[in-house]
Amino acid sequence: MKTIIKNKYLQHKETIHNFIWRAIQIGAKQGTTFLIFFIAAYYLIPEELGLFSYLMAVVGLLLIVCDFGLSSSASKYVAELKAKNSKNVNKILFSISIVVIILSSLVSLFVIFFGKHIFEEYKLLFYLLPYLFFLPLSSVADGVYRGLKDFKKLSLISIAVAIFVLPLSFLLIKIYGMIGAIISQNILFFLLTICLFIFRKETKFKFNKKIIKKILKYALIIGFTGIVYYMYNKADILILKYFGYIVEIGYYEILNKIFLMIIIPFTILGQIIAPNITRLYTKEKFLDIRRKFFRHLLIPLFIGIIISILLYFLMPIVIHLFLEKYFVDETITMLNLLLLILPFRIIAAVVSQGHTIATGNAHFSLWTMIPAGIGNIILDFIFIIKFGFMGVIYSTLICYSLATISFILLYYIKLNKLIKGGQ
After folding, report:
1. How far apart are CA 72 and CA 145, in angstroms?
2. How far apart are the first and last CA of the chain?
3. For the chain, what is the largest distance between any 2 Cα atoms, rounded to a whole number of angstroms?
4. How far apart are CA 375 and CA 24, in angstroms?
5. Would you say 196 and 157 are in contact if contact means Cβ atoms under 8 Å apart?
6. What pLDDT does 423 receive?
7. Which end of the chain is more exposed for a tag (fewer CB within 10 A), N or C?
8. How far apart are CA 364 and CA 366, in angstroms?
9. pLDDT band for position 17 (50/70/90)?
10. Which among 40, 53, 56, 48 has a CA at the least distance from the CA of 323?
């Protein structure tokens, strides 16, 4: 038995080590973000938490334009250039960063000049303008580190930043409330950006138009996918705000954060296996990819079902113990319904990060999410009018399930065609 375990470990040693380091890094980075939110949930009243969640949803929409798929594209092209031993790999970080800064500047100017005509909380959005620069820049740097498989350095930087930011965030939120939570987010991503750039010493500060042109072409697909993904995820919060369900936004976002924490390990797994899948795809080993695809589909499905069952019994207890003012019937009902699609969310995290994006087939997600996103918004309005705030949950259940199943089928069909074409 020990021999079998040892052989399995040696066979997958690189993946295991990369997964551990990436898990530590995500735990430090995303864990800090989540803790800032839950500290805010503890100190803020439900109405304030709902408003804070709404503001972050608005900024989330603006951030799609600032990044527009560049961070995910960076990881893919760095992995490809590294596999080809290309010298251009060290030019990607600086080149993409210039594009991000330009996009973030344009979005910031839009908020400054037109925000007061669009958003009621216009003044609060000013506090989040630095966030529009530092989050996408840190994401691009993160993508470069991932493409290079430099997970250990990425983890150590994230841990150091988290250790500094968390105590500071606690004090800021306790003293300044919602404004403190916003400032904490700005500090977190500012420090991450600075550190990730400083410790990437191999970066060449030369703008490469040829690389950017190629990356932008693929980034556009991921960027549009991000917009559509927003339509059947964060758009729910904007619609709830439109109907005046501020308190319910807080309930909904608490559950969203909990589910995102659960999905993180599977997103990491997808990102860890992505460079290997990219390598196999470049070498046209499509049969090997299909074998891995089945494994990466069935194992997350089984684990997702087990997790959903456990959460059904345990999560109400956790909410009651640590966030008692949110332990209400509405929260528990939403929880139970959203658990039904948790296995699909876990599968989507692994397959999208590890396969469709890694193989240049991110357009499958776009094709399926366009009708799902539009459908979600339409159903949100119809169901909220008919069922109240619970309508967003019913709409999410329908649209997310159909979109996930569809893009998995499209990717599977593409693999089969490539296998037959290579025979």
Report:
1. 11
2. 38
3. 67
4. 37
5. yes
6. 52
7. N
8. 5
9. confident
10. 40
Q: What is the DSSP string of 7-76?
A: HHHHHTHHHHHHHHHHHHHHHHHHHHHHHHHHHHHHHS-HHHHHHHHHHHHHHHHHHHHHHTTHHHHHHH
Average pLDDT, the chain: 87
Could you tell me how many residues make up the chain? Answer: 423
What values do phi and psi take at 149, rounded to 5?
Answer: 60, 30
- Distances from the Cα of 373 to the Cαs of 6, 57, 233, 410, in angstroms? 46, 16, 8, 18
pLDDT at 117 over 70: yes
Global pTM value: 0.83
> Half-sphere exposure of residue 22, counting CA atoms within 13 Å on the CB side?
25
Nearest C-alpha neighbor of 294 from the set 408, 377, 148: 408
Question: What integer is the mean pLDDT of 339-359?
Answer: 92
Residues 6 or more apart whose Cβ sits within 8 Å of residue 162: 28, 29, 31, 32, 188
Q: Residue 178 has what DSSP assignment?
A: H
| Side-chain half-sphere CA neighbours of 231 within 13 A | 21
Cβ atoms of 238 and 380 within 8 Å: the answer is no
Q: Name the token pair of 227.
A: 């917009």
Q: Measured between alpha carbons, how far is residue 369 from residues 75, 319, 403, 405 in Å?
A: 22, 32, 6, 11
pLDDT score at 394: 96
283 to each of 1, 172, 422, how far by Cα in Å?
35, 51, 12
What tokens does 128 get?
A: 């989040």
Nearest to 341 by CA among 222, 250, 232, 224: 232
H-only helix segments in 205-285: 209-231, 235-242, 246-282
- What's the rounded Cα separation, in Å, for the pair 228 and 370? 6
DSSP 137-163: HHHHHHHHHHHTT-HHHHHHHHHHHHH
